[in-house]
Amino acid sequence: xxxxxxxxxxxxxxxxxxxxxxxxxxxxxxxxxxxxxxxxxxxxxxxxxxxxxxxxxxxxxxxxxxxxxxxxxxxxxxxxxxxxxxxxxxxxxxxxxxxxxxxxxxxxxxxxxxxxxxxxxxxxxxxxxxxxxxxxxxxxxxxxxxxxxxxxxxxxxxxxxxxxxxxxxxxxxxxxxxxxxxxxxxxxxxxxxxxxxxxxxxxxxxxxxxxxxxxxxxxxxxxxxxxxxxxxxxxxxxxxxxxxxxxxxxxxxxxxxxxxxxxxxxxxxxxxxxxxxxxxxxxxxxxxxxxxxxxxxxxxxxxxxxxxxxxxxxxxxxxxxxxxxxxxxxxxxxxxxxxxxxxxxxxxxxxxxxxxxxxxxxxxxxxxxxxxxxxxxxxxxxxxxxxxxxxxx
Length: 393
Description:
Layout: E1 2-9, H1 13-24, E2 29-32, H2 40-44, E3 51-54, E4 62-63, H3 71-76, H4 79-88, E5 93-95, E6 100-103, H5 108-120, E7 124-126, E8 131-137, E9 140-145, E10 148-157, H6 172-179, E11 184-190, E12 194-195, H7 198-204, E13 211-212, E14 215-218, E15 221-224, E16 227-229, E17 233-235, H8 237-243, E18 252-255, H9 262-272, H10 278-282, H11 288-297, H12 310-321, E19 323-325, E20 329-330, E21 338-343, E22 361-363, E23 371-372, H13 377-390
Parallel strand pairs: 1-2, 1-10, 2-7, 10-22
Antiparallel strand pairs: 3-6, 4-23, 5-6, 8-9, 9-10, 11-21, 12-17, 12-20, 13-16, 14-15, 14-18, 16-17, 18-19
Helix pairs in contact: 1-5, 1-13, 9-12
């Protein structure tokens, strides 16, 4: 039987950062993970460059049944604190868009930094370690594992959500929560592409690979970033963002020219280019293939501008500015970047992430019902929640 001050289950972003933070306080820390490699989700994030935080992070960028829950952690350890650590390790980075910070080189640098912080403070990181049982113990908690038995004063659950099972995602964290009498709010895939109904898919699959600036809206929320047509449906930043707000059966409204007064532009084209076909006019703002395909998809007659009367021009504007699309579903956890829902935050102190009814038991990161927008917010939640737990465990 081995005893540790702190045991952390999960060697992802939140778990490793929590481990380094706790160990820096002089705590004897061990991290246990069932996977063969640590930080696998970090390594593949951001196209392999890891969107490690966002300069504009605030509690308003997160979905949670308790919208105030993440305020304390985010204020105790901010995006600027993590950027400072990245600078200490001389990791070059850049802002891609909207405050999103990416490594210039590779996500491997972030994992190496986390492991270096752990090594500096003598954290033991054990991979390929299966947790067989967890129970309360006179010294805190007892764990039976495939690598022996452990006791610990503080136990931190950093097991992540259900997204990307091929990277090792499991419902284990939710099972631990339920074992200790905690409620798990319903989970579903978030930041995930939409799939389409057969007719829409057959027509729009022809546009696979085409991306355009667009705004997507659903349930009183809108994101103006861009969409990507795929052979299965729709993706791109605006679609991934709105997927977190979409429920099965909802209609998504898409503005395919969000920064433009299309009604005025078409009227101008009718005056200046009366003999020019609609598809050619639209190709001023879209790839020609997209303009032609969408005209057919919307059932619009492609003809010279002078042949459209005022009511028809209004209908064309509505098709392109208020496209009403009802997705068939999403691609699910297989490609989802995060999991919406999770362990109910009402069970925890927002200042420390410690369970209110179980001394020394902490939950951090994605396993909780805290889901960030696309753009580095979920990593910042990992750092912030991991930090406050690490300062207390």
